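Working notes for the structural subgroup meeting. M.R. asked for a predicted model of this chain before we commit to crystallization trials. I am recording the input and output together here so anyone reviewing the notebook later can reproduce the run.

Input as submitted:
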Amino acid sequence: MLRKLMSMFNKESIISHINRGEDVETNEMFESVFNLAESISDKTDGAFDITVAPLVNAWGFGFKTGNPPTKHMVDSLRAIVGYNKVKLVNHRIQKTDPRVMLDCSAIAKGYGCDVVARLLEKRGIKNYMVEIGGEVVTHGISEKRLPWKIGVTKPSDDSLNVNNELQTVLNVKDRAMATSGNYRNFYYRGGKKYAHTIDPATGYPVQHSILSATVLAKHCAEADAYATAFMVMGMEKAQKVLAEHPELMAYLIYSDDKGNLQVWYSPSMEDKILK
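Returned structure, recorded in token form:
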């Protein structure tokens, strides 16, 4: 179902039709994701932005690879990036510029977890864990009759995804959890490291100290989007948003001035940290 809605790799998905500028009617599920994305964009001053696709592609993390874009290319692409350049009117997406593209990859997996969780609830299942691509929703207890325990991977330059050393283990009960990090999706070119999180405001890969952001929230789509936003925002701005939204909890792993791993987490998360 989600592939038919939001996959940029499926030429017949709703989002592909929108990105090609074709007239297509949205549905309730697509509109739910779009409205949540726009709301979180508002709450994060645009750090979360589903129109960032042209910049992601230009930096080689979407479909196209090659040399990093020039400053002129970045500046021209920034003109067609911005969550305020799209709106939903009468079940159709309206764009201020036909070149604007949508990319829901930073919220879709989380939303998928929520959809499966709702289906399980409808079937009367009370104890479950749903996991899609590292995003998780839990309810009730595990098969060991204990609260669900979910590990957070220690960041390292691991583009092959072979390092599974844990930084911590969290007690995640009746909550959703999502993690975003720059330590697995990156490339080196000309001796410089380019990470996959692009700041919509600057058009460039983020360069601040956060290596991994894990967010706990009521819904996984929300956790997914905020985890991405915190990677874009950096420590101070992320902490400010968290102070304004006590319903969210975050576990942030960052690199200090000497390159050592350090951790900051929401005070409300203290009793959930098991290791």
